[in-house]
Amino acid sequence: MEIRNAKLSDEPTIADWLQNDTDCFYATGEDVYSADMYRSWHEAPDQFGYIFMKENHAVAYGEIWVDVEEQDLELAHLIVHPSYRNKGIGKQLVRMLQKECLDYDYPWVFLRIEPENSRAKKCYTGAGFIEDLSLRTTFNSRWVWMKAKNGEA
Questions:
Q1: Where are the alpha helices (DSSP H) in the chain?
Q2: What is the DSSP annotation of 128-151?
Q3: Could you count the other beta carbons within 10 Å of the beta carbon of residue 80?
Q4: Which of 68, 67, 64, 70 is nearest to 111 (CA)?
Q5: Residue 99: what pLDDT?
Q6: Is the pTM higher than 0.70?
Q7: CATH (domain of 12)
Q8: 113 inside domain
């Protein structure tokens, strides 16, 4: 797989992948996707989106959120093309994003998932993330928080 920076022109691709309500909810926390969502992700100064290509086809999308104040990183809006799911693309996506995280001298990379998204939890565990129960009780109880040491991809 190859990685490239996401562009505004990638929005229709992301929209196509998020037509299913459950997929949309797991990736965005919202029941319905809108182009404005993607635009806000793309324009945020601390969020960096990437498109993952396989044989000249976009197969996944993910972001790195950089929190300068907290000195940590978060992987977010991780989406795999529906036809490429259950083929290891999600784990490759996470590992490639972890390599991009090496550009930042922050100790931890976090991600959060909806509690019922067991497939994502299995994928992220396979990529080296562990659940951090303390974040769920002290920071935000809605999600399952996971973390990995930056540089241990």
A1: 11-17, 21-28, 35-43, 89-101, 118-126, 133-138
A2: T-EE-HHHHHHT-SSSEEEEEETT
A3: 25
A4: 64
A5: 96
A6: yes
A7: 3.40.630.30
A8: no
